[in-house]
Specification:
The protein is of the alpha+beta class. Strands 10, 11, 12, 19, 20, 21, 22, 23, 28 and 29 form a ten-stranded mixed beta sheet that branches. Strands 2, 3, 4, 6, 7, 8 and 9 form a seven-stranded mixed beta sheet that branches. Strands 15-14-13-18-27-24 form a six-stranded mixed beta sheet. Helix 2 packs parallel to helix 3.
């Protein structure tokens, strides 16, 4: 795929505009005539679409094509950045002239060109949008809606959605490094509303990854429909959630979003270099209970958060952040890694060519322990079992977070008693890590729906964890 990605990038981003390595060298010559530590060009072409179906009617459809190039120069901690949706040598030279202002006269900095592609094949270079006709995309959503309606007579409304993206990127650096990647991404979602005795509840379920639409066969669609209906029906019998500080068991899979938000962001290099993270300066120290191991892994095949190369052309990797409770390091892009005197970890990411790169998570996962989920539930005297989460918020500096549970149960004497509604979890991420009392052996990744926001930029991510028990430091805000 390495040469395939380069050929595709040439086809979409260079050849149509008369650009080649010699032309890019001219651009870098313009930037590097003033001394800068680092410079790169990020070319991007993307096609994206979205479809939604409600009550058997297509409610919305969107299609977007975007392309452009971002030009960046770095001197010390200072960054100059310009971007254009006009891919041409003139536009590149104009952007380069604007960015070199942060440097001082007299630089050189040119290396030999190494066209590396991406060097790996974590996903196939598919074009999802071309993989189905428009009629077949609508038919897919109709099947999903019909599956959900057929499962339970209490289903009164179904909304189904489909989204796909085909993205080609080409990264050129001042040191001669060149890299390319072709990134497919698809997602399907279904929301159901159920009604019983005048009470209505809803649930939303979906999934996807770096595939084309053929991933969504009947078995997959039926699975989404069953899970959405199950979650909604469970909440028809939910009682008001109790409030107070109590032990909490977090389910496997998507509840890892709490790990992502409350802990993962605090392990990104920029926050730690600036000293604004609760984890700053703590490498080598115990920050979590024994047995807690957290990794960020951008190399899991076909996963939503995975990348062959990051947006600076570095191969993604499996980075151990916390091992057996001890902090091992942070997620790094080129800028923060250089300033902190460490190696980049392949976590330089950006929403598009019009955005600056920063250290971001890919797929953030807590690794398995040795307890069965049944053992963990049985060990709890009284507490909350949170199976699914909706939204949440976190303060990076303090580590404080608030999350709402969309599916949760009250547990007494080691047995699940009844579902509860309206539970919110309030706590402090670094503190919660130290209160993990049991770790399950049922590690599961999320279904492929995660999107992470940071400083106004959104990127696709993944999360995962086994069932875990948190023995203190969590307050449940309820309605009972």
């Amino acid at each position: 795929m390495s040469q395939s990605a380069l050929a595709t990038a040439d086809h979409y981003l260079l050849t149509p505009y008369g650009l080649d390595d010699a032309a890019l060298d001219k651009v870098f010559g313009e930037i590097m005539s003033h001394q800068v530590d680092y410079a790169d060009l990020y070319f991007q072409y993307s096609r994206a679409e979205g479809w939604s179906l409600e009550e058997g009617i297509v409610k919305s459809g969107s299609f977007n094509i975007d392309q452009g190039v971002g030009v960046r120069a770095i001197q010390g901690e200072k960054t100059a950045f310009a971007y254009s949706d006009d891919i041409s040598l003139a536009a590149l030279q104009s952007a380069a002239h604007a960015t070199r202002a942060i440097g001082y006269q007299g630089g050189t900095g040119k290396g030999g060109v190494a066209r590396l592609g991406n060097g790996r094949d974590l996903y196939r270079p598919l074009d999802p949008i071309a993989s189905l006709s428009e009629a077949d995309k609508v038919a897919l959503l109709e099947r999903l809606e019909n599956y959900a309606r057929s499962l339970d007579p209490r289903v009164i409304q179904v909304m189904a959605s489909l989204a796909g993206e085909y993205e080609v990127v080409y990264i050129a650096r001042h040191d001669g490094h060149r890299a390319a990647d072709v990134r497919p991404l698809v997602r399907v979602g279904v929301q159901v509303i159920v009604e019983q005795n005048g009470r209505r509840e809803s649930a939303h379920v979906g999934g996807g990854g770096r595939y084309d639409y053929s991933y969504f066969n009947d078995e997959v669609l039926q699975g989404y429909a069953r899970e959405a209906v199950r979650q909604a029906v469970v909440n028809l019998d939910a009682r008001p959630a109790p409030a107070g500080e109590m032990p909490v068991v977090l389910g496997s899979g998507w509840p890892g979003i709490l790990l992502h938000e409350a802990i993962g962001h605090g392990l990104e290099g920029d926050f730690n270099r600036k000293g604004s993270s609760a984890f700053a300066g703590r490498v080598g120290q115990r920050v979590a209970a024994k047995g807690v191991t957290v990794v960020d892994d951008g190399t899991i095949p076909d996963r939503r958060g995975s990348l062959n190369v990051d947006d600076e052309g570095n191969p993604t990797q499996r980075t151990v952040l916390i091992e057996d409770g001890v902090l091992q390091g942070y997620l790094q892009d080129n800028l923060n890694a250089r300033l902190m005197g460490v190696a980049p970890t392949g976590n330089g990411r950006r929403e598009s060519y019009a955005h600056l790169t920063m250290p971001r998570m890919t797929n953030t996962v807590m690794m398995n322990g040795d307890k069965s989920p049944e053992e963990i539930i049985a060990s709890m005297k009284r507490g909350l079992y949170a199976v699914q989460f909706a939204g949440g918020q976190v303060d990076i500096t303090s580590g404080k977070f608030v999350f709402s549970a969309s599916e949760a149960y009250w547990v007494e004497d080691g047995k699940i008693q009844y579902p509860v509604k309206g539970a919110t979890l309030i706590g402090n991420g670094p503190d919660v890590l130290t209160k993990v009392g049991m770790i399950g052996n049922d590690l599961k990744l999320d279904a492929g729906v995660g999107t992470c926001g940071k400083e106004g930029q959104s990127v696709p991510v993944g999360v995962g964890q086994p069932t875990i028990r948190i023995d203190g430091g969590l307050t449940v805000g309820g309605t009972a």
